[in-house]
Amino acid sequence: MEIEDRELVRRVLAGQTDDFRLLVDRYQQPIFRFASGLLGSREEAQDVTQEAFLAAFANLSGYDSSRALFSTWLFTIARNRCVNLLKQSRPLALNESHSVADVTSADPIVRQELSQQLDRALAALPVEQRSALVLAEIEELPYAEIARIERTSLGTVKSRIHRAKQRLQSLLEPAMRESR
Amino acid sequence: MTEKRYEQWLAECREVAPPVTLADRIMNQVTKMERQRRDFWWLRLLQRIEQSRAARWAVCGGALAVGGSPFVFLAHVAQFVTF
């Protein structure tokens, strides 16, 4: 039987540090996937995943299991790290940025690869929309949990995801037309 | 067609896995942090006081007892002592 996160947190706080490994094993892939989707870089995603787990360990006594799931808390830490990183390194990514057609027009081979087009389209989304879309579509989290991670209302989350999908579609249309 | 490709792309994204060594690296750092924390006994004491209400009461009670002891001495004990 799987030990609950709450119990594992209690054990780690009681001094059984090795039990933190179970939490790492359980959540490293979702956190890495989320960071990877948000940042578009495996190297940066690795760093963010590592930092998120270390921050969680250092502040574990501040985690309140009655307020949020451990996974929600961890995703919130990872999200904040990703946003900070994007702000520091790529301020443009926070705003409406380039279109897919602009990015890929120089390379006709890349243009044919729709999954690469989608990666680029995702990277072109504003960070709030990108984060909500990754959590909803790739991580398949419920909207209520996404709202907690994003620290916003349920309505805002729904509208961000809707707008992200619309924008993704509009960014992909030229590429789709060209690939036909 | 687009919908199918989109689903395929989502499936690809869900398959993204971290490097196999990542968990070990995290746990190495965690062990290091824990060792550093143990080395600073006063830091652990501070954390204990911060986390536990009983510990906070004990510290306040102790401080009150130490701070009030000269007054207790003057009020009750000093009269029995011949100087």
What does this 3D model show about the protein?
The complex is a heterodimer of chains A (180) and B (83). Chain A has helices at residues 5-13, 20-39, 42-58, 70-89, 100-104, 108-112, 114-123, 127-138, 143-150, 154-179. With 180 residues, chain A is an all-alpha fold. Chain A has 2 domains: 1-89, Rna Polymerase Sigma Factor, Chain: A (Orthogonal Bundle); 97-180, Arc Repressor Mutant, subunit A (Orthogonal Bundle), CATH 1.10.10. Chain A is elongated and about 60 Å long. Chain B has one domain (2-80). With 83 residues, chain B is mainly α. Chain B is rod-shaped and about 100 Å long. In chain B, helix 3 crosses helix 4 (53-77). Classes of the chains: A mainly alpha (180), B mainly alpha (83). The interface between A and B is medium-sized, with 30 and 26 residues.
What is the multimeric organization of the chains shown?
Answer: heterodimer
- The overall number of domains of chain B is 1
- For the largest interface in this structure, which chains are involved and how many residues does each contribute? A-B, 30 and 26 residues
Tell me the number of structural domains of chain A.
2
Radius of gyration of chain B: 30 Å
| CATH fold-level name of the largest domain in chain A | Rna Polymerase Sigma Factor, Chain: A
Main sheet summary of chain A: none
Give the termini separation of chain A: 51 Å
Give me the strand/helix succession of chain B.
HHHH
**Can you identify the CATH class of the largest domain in chain A?**
Mainly Alpha
Q: What is the mean predicted local confidence, pLDDT of chain A?
A: 84
Per-chain topology:
The complex is a heterodimer of chains A (180) and B (83).
Chain A: H1 5-13, H2 20-39, H3 42-58, H4 70-89, H5 100-104, H6 108-112, H7 114-123, H8 127-138, H9 143-150, H10 154-179
Chain B: H1 2-14, H2 22-39, H3 41-51, H4 53-77
Helix pairs in contact in B: 3-4
